Model the fold of this input.
Amino acid sequence: MKIVILGGVAAGAKAAAKARRLLPDAQIDIYTDDTHVSYSSCGLPYYIAGNFEDYEMLLVRSPEAFEQSRIHVHLLNRAIKILPDSKQVLVYEMTDKQTFLVDYDKLIIAVGARPFIPTIPNINLKNIFTLRKIEDGIAIKEKALQSKHATIVGGGFIGLELLEAFIDQNLKVTLIEYSPFIMPMFDEDISILIKEQLISINDGRFEILTSELVSEFIGDECGVKIVKTASGRDIETDLVILATGAVPNVEIARDAGIAIGETGAIRVNEKMETNIPDIYACGDCVEEYFIMTGTKIWMPLGAVANKEGRCAAMNACGFEDIFAGVLGSAVARSMYLTMSMTGLTEKKAAMAGFNPVSSIVTKNDKVGYMPNVNNITLKIVADLDTGLLLGGQAIGVGDADKRINILASALVGKLTVEEFLKNDLTYAPPFSPTIDPLLNAAEILSSKIKALRIGKFAE
Amino acid sequence: MKIVILGGVAAGAKAAAKARRLLPDAQIDIYTDDTHVSYSSCGLPYYIAGNFEDYEMLLVRSPEAFEQSRIHVHLLNRAIKILPDSKQVLVYEMTDKQTFLVDYDKLIIAVGARPFIPTIPNINLKNIFTLRKIEDGIAIKEKALQSKHATIVGGGFIGLELLEAFIDQNLKVTLIEYSPFIMPMFDEDISILIKEQLISINDGRFEILTSELVSEFIGDECGVKIVKTASGRDIETDLVILATGAVPNVEIARDAGIAIGETGAIRVNEKMETNIPDIYACGDCVEEYFIMTGTKIWMPLGAVANKEGRCAAMNACGFEDIFAGVLGSAVARSMYLTMSMTGLTEKKAAMAGFNPVSSIVTKNDKVGYMPNVNNITLKIVADLDTGLLLGGQAIGVGDADKRINILASALVGKLTVEEFLKNDLTYAPPFSPTIDPLLNAAEILSSKIKALRIGKFAE
Done:
């Protein structure tokens, strides 16, 4: 049994390790165009921030450790064509510039995603970076340590995580977001709060520009010097990060006749099978089943990739396994502000055909007299017609993420707001107020639903 | 409408505030033998620890604030008899030593619990304390600040919270527990781990004696000096805490013909009604419906008391409300070790007639390269026959409580282990490992259940 895995960061590495445990005698090979395998790309912002010094801390499993499990890791080997009829992959060895064919019985595609690069004049200047791979992180940190000012283009998860990282490294930062809101995956009221809260803890070291576009980069052979914006700003800077999203690497799959889904990522079923026999796909290159709506969504996240890698290996190795899909749970931290969400936002709930109603509370995350008490703002969304909980968003320097995960379990259980109110959450002063903010929010939402149903509710 | 509330710490104070919001014109009176009303007794260990200086931080709402809402608070007024036929309460005014009758339309009994005092020679010596009321906390802190050694009798929640408090105040501490295990509400394997983990972070400042009894206190008019134990130890000490449990205050209710339940606490239905019309009870003096088993349990906890107070007020004021019961969720911290649980332990699941099976994992609470990463140990329990999740226990210096609350939602939703595995928990390096330890534990439990069902599982 020959198992060939293309890509080896999260899903690919997980698939390889799982396959080895399932089939001790299989031949397992990972081919990747990367310089490293099995690493935590989600940890790169914390490496750049200086939370730890050695980038090798990010390596989950070394090629040597894989080799000890008889998993052969071929770094700098780019798969350039899949030949489903002959069950082969054409691989280009990047160092020696050799091309060769590899046979497979089962193929697992885990080639990930790549940064989306916007079209901006002089975008190829030195010191304009994207962040995805280990060497990106190393290069950015090296440059950051010699810099005074960084410009981050894009106000999503990675942009905001890097804001904290650069501030931790004592740089000044300008963050530029083209939409009117940073973190636009949240509802607008929450996005506005995120910006307000970030600005409230700003001591002049960073600025956040929304509804702003980069019109041009200006620099010389030493690198970028100035970021010009559509509104006429000239921002002097030492380095630029393009955190403008990602696109799934689907070209090699499409070229082989593998179906691409409505989201633009590879289409797989719940066994991580593509439409071509014996070819599986997992991780950031595939789209996910969105449990909340029954539709497809592209969620290129580390936890999801790991689960999918595991599931792909199970099925490729002949064991039945199902990946149920995603709830859309995510969390990020910026300037020690936690931003977390699960399920549907109010906006997305309406788009999905629900009749959404929401409540927002701002409360202490623990009892007010405790040291390190902090605020969290929590918004939860339910369907007015059925009472079904649809999602939640929580932000704050306090323990916001805990509440979102409690809610995620309720979404799995398809609980209504009324049912959720039966929840018995732990209480002690270091952990929560007597009544958890999540139950406050649910209580308010329950009253609102009852009032709206009898036409008595007025905002 | 005259609403009379007996007791005003948590349930009573909450009931009063809620009743006022519901019925702006009702006459609302709180009678309590306490010196204070509406305070966080759960916060007393943190006051003693010096986490904050002013005990008034513990006061949620002052008598003056209640008065502004036209809720009349009668401190040091002990209710001594309820006369259901004439709908009156006989009250003893403790300062002036006057007795008088109070009329009620609706009576809410929220008289709480009191410490259980074991029978030990010389237990009335000075500097032997229990912890329940504000003045207990003030007296203990005052004595602790002049002391070098404290003895804590009882290794449950309060005993262990006070261990941290005294260590924070630089005392040496001996904790004595008569059973073989501290925190005996956990499964024995977890109780053993709690003791081991506490001992592992001990730098000689405290000792924990299990299977040990206090045989006698020795002292003089200045107070306790020596704690003698059954095994022959003479422990020199400056103060003693009796943290040997609590008993519900039911005497006044029983005397009035109010039914007492199988747990020894006042029996109420889901509307917090007693068996006598127009008399409600809530808080630490009543027993709870245990959702996990459908039986009764006594859970004298702050969050529960608050919910019950609210529910009692709703129904007393003529609005329908139901308190669904408890899952048995609880958390405490000792020496910065979090100990948290929800639902049934493996032992209690077996006693309740389930066929329990469990898994235990010890994992990082966040990604290993992050600062402040800590271990948590997580045990989850399910029913082998149905796969239903039954409960969980988590301990660790890390974020153990988060995982227990995620599980609590799953218990409300009556999820099986398989269903719970669909959960999509948030991931970013500061918040969890890529796959949350709770999902690891569920994965292992799922495999174990499958293997046991086909008879293939061997420990």
About this structure: Residues 79 and 266 of chain B are 16 Å apart (CA to CA).
